[in-house]
Amino acid sequence: MRARRALxxxxxxxLMTVALAADKTLDTLQQRALQDAYAEGLVTRLINEVGxxxxxxxxYERALIxxxxxxxxxxxxxxxxxxxIQPRWVRGATRVELLTDNEPLPLSAxxxxxxxxxxxxxxxxxxxxVGSLEELRALKPAQLRGRIVFMDLSMxxxxxxxxxxxxxxVRAHGPAEAGRRGAAAYLxxxxxxxxxxxxxxGSTDYEDAPRIPALALSNLAAxxxxxxxxxxxxxxxxxxxxxxxxxxNSAYVVGELPGKSDEIVLLGAHLDSWDIxxxxxxxxxxxxxxxxxxxxxxxxxxxxxxxxxxxLYANEEFGLSGAKAYAEAHAGELGRxxxxxxxxxGSGRVLKLMDGLGENNAALRAAxxxxxxxxxxxxxxxxxxxxxxxxxxxxxGVPLLGPRQDASxxxxxxxxxxxxxxHLDRAGLRQNVAVYASLAWLVADWPQPIARLPAE
Length: 456
Ligand SMILES: [Zn+2]
What we know:
14 helices, about 40% helix, binds zinc ion, about 450 residues, single chain
């Protein structure tokens, strides 16, 4: 009996030693990350050396070379590209004008990604203003035929991106609903929280509807148009040269810190940006966060129990080509992915940690919450969604942790020409690196098996 108690004490003591050693490593990681300007430097180089890097463009090819070099400089192993086919679409010249009795008044606008263009004569038509998808769906084709739908919905500012979630359907489904009802074009107030004249783009889905030109107006342009419509009606002219080109063979980039086993902890961000923006926040910040996090782990000079893999995905913005290609190429080893985390909400501080570990990883969950508490990160709710690039993995049952960043200012610049380096939250970027690095190490070096979730 006494021997058993002594053994138990020894075992506890051993566990304690392991726990204390882990604590020290995690604390060291966090302190180093908080003092390290590497992530800021990395995103600065991405913007200055590469700039816009849209799917299928030369800019994206430059970004690929940049990513290889950055991963090798950071000491990653097995740095390589994996093939992906990307769509290629160009917006061409864009002109939207409010017709007046005198000179037409230009309105700042950008095509939504994938929009069809107009013919050379353009479209000139009366505007029908609606405030929601429900209002649009309530209109009869007779009320819309040949007219331009003006979707005038203002996006709400929120720290958790819920304002974007609410407004997003008008961009995703509005053009299809308008096309189905015979409208000539779709013009929406952009999904932006900034009262400025820089329009924000984004993807849309024509579904099975007739394809009509679809564009977003800056908030100031939308204010101007709304005022004229309310004062008695408005007509607008649209000229758009947008067109699709053939698909392009390309790649996404993978780099690792090899562990003692072939189980994988995956950190993801997307290398591509929209064509009209340097993409400092979206997703230069995410690229910098996950790359800087793995670099901190490499610098520890230790081999974790599991491999930690950074994936810089291709074409998140315009069809998730990289996410789909990765899930297909790695279908046989999805069972060995024990965690996925994605960084794609800019550089704002992590406010809370969303929990996608499921019912059977209670000890790991408690440890994860405890690890990030000193960084000011609160325990978050359960979720199965940690980002669109890792969605195929998490849907298949890969556990996830979701650092939820402060997105209060993110949608001032998101998908617009204003997404530049001067909007980065530099202290926030460092805190993110500390969060991602310490969580990745905690999970990669976790001594117990990590349970999968049921597939969705
Ligand atoms: Zn993004």
